[in-house]
Amino acid sequence: MTYEEATKMLAKCGQEHVLAHWKKLGKKEREALLAQIATIEPKSLAQCAATLKTGSEPPDSSKGKAPKVAVLKGKALKDAVAAGEKELKAGRVAALLVAGGQGSRLGYEGPKGCYPIGPATDAPLFYFHARKILARSLRYGKTIPFYVMTSEMNDAATKACFEENKYFGLDKKDVFFFTQGMWPGMTKEGKIILDQPGHVFMSPDGHGGLLAALKRSGALADMKKRGIKSVFFFQVDNPLVEIADPAFIGYHVLEKSDYSLKLCAKRDPFEKVGMPMKFGDSFRMVEYTEMTREQCERKDGKGELYFKYGSPAIHVFDRAFLDKEASKAMPLHLAFKKIPFVDAKGKVVKPDAPNGYKFEKFIFDILPNAKKAAFLAFDQKEEFSPVKNAEGSDSPATCKADMQNKWRKWLSEAGVTVADGLTVEIDPAYALDASDILKNGICLGAE
Ligand code: UTP
């Protein structure tokens, strides 16, 4: 993009101030600024401005009903597992990881996926995800391609982590990295914020940026070429997730669902998790902040919570559904944050209070577009223990304890007693569950 083209585009959008310090910039800074401006689409700026005007007031959730959530047991479970195994053996399943977040609550320098979570080995979060995919692929004799979304901030470090660790045993050609988009931050008045005289403040466009990024990068086309039908979606911070679990894949396929969600019973009525609700013929994710106290505490006829379940963002998508949704605009959500800015004299100011908006898209905003959605219950203790905070709940300490409890249970099911106080860690490529321990036997590493 040339200076003239940038001036014209910015003038059309009422954002001329982005070039206000042009004369003081060096050659490199000028080039970088033009390159940044080239990534900003006027259409997106108009959408940001419109969202600022309307605000991101959530729609009324008072008419929402609890969805029907399947609890698979006996024959239903057997049928789902068989259907899922059929898909896995046919090579129609992919794994899709969103790892572009900034992990600000954890406060870890670098991609969250590189965070050392292995209780004994300090293996990174990526290790547990990749080794599960490897094990599942080996078990069913077909590759599960692994699509990893990064952001501009952590793309290089993420790729370096996979390279250094030899892709954790996966074949490099089956790991597809792609980068999500960035949105400029804006003032209340809809003006783009510069955080340096020659630099626009930009932040990742949320996990909903996934759809556009899948399309732009060719990942969706790659999935189609490989004959993928079901796409298992998960987040980077939960090493307990059962990636491409046959029961979930099978349930999704048997239900002919576009978008399936695993849901777990909330730990308490006010747990901070989203809740899919039914509105007429479709579903929408209602965030915990949108639920009233009455809704959180409401009981059903059996005295159980009416809105019993929450979503830990473990999904299966139909690939063709993602393809359709990828061309549509998604709604934007606003986050009012402290954003460094350049004052009229060209000085960088770090504000003490929120002064600008970041814009994010959320993947679950495509739920209402699903012709068929399906909901499957699972046990939170078995599959969900995210690393969100540095300390306290949902922290590395709680996650490591939960990982070890799960492994200890498998060992106990396999007849192995582990002394109290011993650190336990199992390589997922060695055992995906207790049955693998029985099959493979036990090899004790050094403490
Ligand atoms: P979180 O909402 O936990 O955000 O992301 P975060 O950025 O990781 O952490 P905080 O809020 O700054 O502490 C949930 C999942 O969505 C991904 C994250 O990487 C994580 O797997 N994500 C989030 C993206 O891929 N891109 C984004 O822009 C935001």
Short structural summary:
The protein is an alpha/beta fold.
**Average pLDDT metric:** 95
Fraction of residues in helix: 25-40%
Strand segment tally = 18
Shape by Cα distribution: globular
* CATH topology (level 3) name of the largest domain: Spore Coat Polysaccharide Biosynthesis Protein SpsA, Chain A
Distinct helical segment count: 14
Rg (CA only): 23 Å
CATH superfamily placement of the largest domain = Spore Coat Polysaccharide Biosynthesis Protein SpsA, Chain A
What is the straight-line distance between the termini?
Answer: 58 Å
**Poorly predicted tracts of residues:** none
Q: Report the sheet with the most strands, covering strand number, pairing sense and barrel closure.
A: 8 strands, mixed
Number of domains: 2
Fraction in beta strands: 15-25%
CATH class of the largest domain: Alpha Beta
Query: Structural class from helices and strands?
Result: alpha/beta
Notes on the structure:
A hairpin with a 2-residue loop joins strand 10 and strand 11 (282-286). This protein has helices at residues 3-12, 27-38, 42-54, 74-89, 125-140, 155-164, 210-217, 219-225, 246-254, 293-297, 319-325, 380-383, 396-413, 434-440; strands at 93-98, 146-150, 175-179, 182-184, 194-196, 199-200, 202-204, 230-235, 259-265, 275-279, 282-286, 309-310, 315-318, 333-337, 341-342, 348-349, 356-360, 373-378. The chain folds into two domains: 1-39, no CATH class; 55-392, Spore Coat Polysaccharide Biosynthesis Protein SpsA, Chain A. The model has no long low-confidence stretch (mean pLDDT 95). The protein has 447 residues and is of the alpha/beta class. It contains 14 helices and 18 strands. Strands 1, 2, 3, 8, 9, 12, 13 and 18 form an eight-stranded mixed beta sheet that branches. Bound molecules: uridine 5'-triphosphate. Uridine 5'-triphosphate binds at residues 98-106, 112, 149, 151, 180, 204, 206-207, 209, 235-237, 388.
